[in-house]
C-alpha cells in the first residue's frame, strides 16, 4: 500500500541508495512512477507494506516502510534490492558503490572518494561542520531532522 513520502511517520524505516552520478530530469521523471508502482506492490509474505519511495537531491533513491503496520522481511528486502538493480541496468547508474561519500557544499552535492577523504580533511576542504549525506540514516524522522548532517555527527567523526 503506497503512502506519500511526506506523510510517512517518523519511525518509518528507510533504505537510502546513492547514485554514482546525478540523475537527469528526464531520468527522474521516468523513475518516479516506477518508484510509486514498486512501493504500491511491495509486500512481505503476501501482506502489503505501507511503503513509499522518493528521489532526493537528484542522486538519492530512498525506499521507506512503516514497520508499525507490517515489517519488511528478508524476502521483501531482497525484492527491493532486485528493483534497485533493475533501475541500475535500465539507467546505466550504480546505486551500490559505497566508496563514494556525498557532501553538501555551496548548495551542491559534491562526491568524494573514500580514498580522498583524509587529504580533503587535511586540506580543510571538508571539516566537521561540512554537511554529509549519511546513507546509514534509518528512519524518516532522522531524515527530516538531520539530513544532511554535520560530518562530525556521523560515523565520519573519527576523521575530525
Task: Write a structural description.
- The model has no long low-confidence stretch (mean pLDDT 93).
- The chain has four helices and nine strands; from the N terminus they run E-H-E-E-E-E-H-E-E-H-E-H-E.
- The N and C termini lie far apart (43 Å).
- The chain is of the alpha+beta class and 160 residues long.
- The chain has helices at 25-41, 74-91, 114-122, 140-145, and strands at 13-18, 43-44, 47-48, 51-56, 60-65, 100-105, 108-113, 131-132, 149-150.
- The radius of gyration is 16 Å and the shape is globular.
- The protein folds into two domains: 5-91, Alpha-Beta Plaits; 100-134 and 145-159, no CATH class.
- It comes from Pontibacter virosus.
Compact summary:
This protein has 160 residues and is of the alpha+beta class. The protein contains four helices and nine strands; from the N terminus they run E-H-E-E-E-E-H-E-E-H-E-H-E.
Major sheet: arrangement of strands: 7-6-8-9
Name given to the CATH architecture of the largest domain: 2-Layer Sandwich
Helix content: 25-40%
CATH topology of the largest domain: Alpha-Beta Plaits
Outline type: globular
Distance between the termini: 43 Å
Total strand segments = 9
Radius of gyration using CA atoms only: 16 Å
Q: SSE order in H/E notation?
A: EHEEEEHEEHEHE
Overall pLDDT score: 93
Fill in the keyword field for this structure.
160 residues, alpha+beta, Alpha-Beta Plaits, 2 domains, 4-stranded antiparallel β-sheet, 3-stranded antiparallel β-sheet, 4 helices, 9 strands, 31% helix, globular, ABC transporter ATPase
What is the topology?
Blueprint lengths: L12 E6 L6 H17 L1 E2 L2 E2 L2 E6 L3 E6 L8 H18 L8 E6 L2 E6 H9 L8 E2 L7 H6 L3 E2 L10
Antiparallel strand pairs: 1-5, 2-3, 4-5, 6-7, 6-8, 8-9
Amino acid at each position: 500500500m503506497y503512502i506519500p513520502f511526506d506523510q510517512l511517520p517518523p519511525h518509518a524505516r528507510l533504505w537510502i541508495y546513492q547514485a554514482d552520478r546525478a540523475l537527469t530530469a528526464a531520468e527522474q521523471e521516468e523513475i518516479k512512477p516506477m518508484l510509486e508502482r514498486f512501493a504500491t506492490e511491495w509486500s512481505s509474505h503476501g501482506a502489503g507494506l505501507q511503503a513509499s519511495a522518493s528521489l532526493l537531491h537528484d542522486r538519492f533513491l530512498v525506499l521507506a516502510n512503516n514497520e508499525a503496520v507490517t515489517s519488511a522481511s528478508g524476502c521483501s528486502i531482497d525484492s527491493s534490492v532486485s528493483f534497485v538493480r533493475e533501475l541500475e541496468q535500465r539507467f546505466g547508474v550504480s546505486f551500490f558503490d559505497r566508496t563514494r561519500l556525498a557532501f553538501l557544499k555551496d548548495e551542491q552535492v559534491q562526491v568524494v572518494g573514500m580514498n580522498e577523504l583524509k587529504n580533503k580533511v587535511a586540506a580543510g576542504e571538508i571539516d566537521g561542520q561540512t554537511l554529509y549525506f549519511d546513507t546509514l540514516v534509518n528512519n524518516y524522522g532522522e531524515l527530516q531532522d538531520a539530513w544532511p548532517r554535520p560530518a562530525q555527527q556521523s560515523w565520519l567523526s573519527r576523521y575530525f
